[in-house]
Structures are given as C-alpha cells and as structure tokens.
Specification:
Elements (H helix, E strand, L loop, with lengths): L4 E6 L3 H11 L5 E7 L2 H11 L3 E5 L7 H8 L7 E6 L5 H9 L3 E4 L4 H12 L7 H14 L11 H12 L4 H11 L4 H8 L3 H15 L4 H10 L4
Parallel strand pairs: 1-2, 1-3, 3-4, 4-5
Length: 229
C-alpha cells in the first residue's frame, strides 16, 4: 500500500486550520501530521515532522508565507509547498511562486478540489490551470517580486538569461518545457507530444536540473521570459 501523504497546515487563524483538518483528515492517502500558526513555527515543525506537503498561508505574523517558503527551499529535500490566499491576484502569491512554491489555492476552494490539488502536488503534478498560469506569469513579469530593487535585471537581461538556460535542452526537452509553460499537465503533454506519462515526468525532472529551478512554475517563468509563450 502506498504511504499516505504527510501534510502540515500553516495558518495564523485557528478556525481556518480546524476547517482544513475537517476537510483533509480521515483520508486513507492523506495524513495531517501537524499545524503551525506562523512561518517561524512552520520552519520548526517541518524540521520535526518532515511533511511531504505544506499548506502555507501567505499573510502571517512574525514570518510570512513568502519568507517561510523561500527558507524551506534553501534546505535540502524541501517539502512541496502550496500557498493559501484569499486573492487570486495577490502579489504575495507571485512572490511565493518565485520563492519556490509549487502552486497556490484560494481559501474558498471546494473540499474535493483541495484534496485533488494536494494529491497532485504530492505526485509532482502541476496544479495551476493554463489560464491561471498565464495570469501569474503576466503579473510576475510586471511586478517582478523575486527581483525588485536597483539591481533587478531588466526585461532584456531576463530574456537573455532564459534563452541561455533553454539552449541547454535537447529538442524534446525544449518541447516539454514549452508545454509546461503553457500550463499543460503531464498527461496533456504526453498526448500532445506522443509520449508516455513516465517519459514526460523524466523530461520534467531533467528540466529542473538543467534550468536550475525547483518547480514547474519556474519552468514556465523561464519559457515566458524567453518569449516562447
């Protein structure tokens, strides 16, 4: 039997955490292993509990979800992170994705969609629809939350860097990267490119290494910056 996905819930509102426990608890393939009320506590609990997936609120006291996500992804073998927000165009979400989050959910997501998203992310699948991906990438290009300040690269520099990274790929890897940039799932990429799903997963794993990224959203950002989507 496959081991249950270990899940850590991070939100400064106890009522939200209780609601998430009710929605996610009691599943054979999911186990809520702990809770945290802010980003600092989340970092400690991840170290203690070793969850597979963290549901991370964005706006929290002491250490917000963006900073906590960035800190987690600086560690070896970090958990996958899904950020939680009340706004689908929240700039905090853009920052979290740039920091290494694996996707985001609105807090009013239905229980079934929440379950499906957690399972998908735990399996390494994308959880952003193509339309959401395009919206996020457009806003990220404009807001550049991961690189603001006087030393932030301009659009030409981002394009050159993205093009340099993509030049490392084989033709097939390049095709897969463009498909990821369009927000396609592994199954959709497999159908479009006449590949098996395991082969697509292997290509995506190589993209992480060759493009020096940690999740599919960052692949999409690289493809977008290169002007391919």
């Amino acid at each position: 039997m496959t081991e249950a996905v270990r899940l850590l819930l991070v939100d400064d509102d106890p009522l939200v955490r209780s609601a998430l426990v009710l929605m996610l608890g009691g599943r054979d393939d999911l186990q809520v292993v702990g809770e945290a009320g802010d980003g600092e506590e989340a970092l400690r609990r991840v170290e203690e509990l070793r969850p597979d997936v963290v549901l991370m609120d964005i706006r929290m006291p002491r250490l917000d979800g963006v900073a906590a996500t960035r800190a987690l992804h600086e560690r070896p073998s970090p958990p996958r992170v899904i950020v939680l927000t009340t706004f689908d165009a929240d700039d905090y979400v853009l920052g979290a994705l740039a920091a290494g989050a694996d996707g985001f959910l609105l807090k009013d997501t239905s229980p079934q969609d929440l379950l499906d998203a957690v399972r998908a992310v735990a399996a390494g699948e994308p959880m952003l629809s193509p339309s959401v991906t395009r919206t996020l990438l457009t806003r990220l290009r404009a807001a550049d939350p991961g690189g603001t300040g006087p030393e932030a690269p301009d659009a030409d520099a981002r394009t050159a860097e993205a093009t340099r990274r993509l030049a490392r790929l084989t033709e097939r890897e390049h095709d897969v990267a463009v498909a990821v940039g369009a927000g396609l799932t592994n199954a959709e990429i497999a159908a479009a490119l006449h590949l098996s799903v395991p082969t697509v997963k292997a290509h995506v794993s190589r993209l992480f290494e060759k493009l020096e990224v940690t999740n599919r959203v960052q692949i999409a950002i690289c493809v977008h910056d290169a002007g391919l989507t």
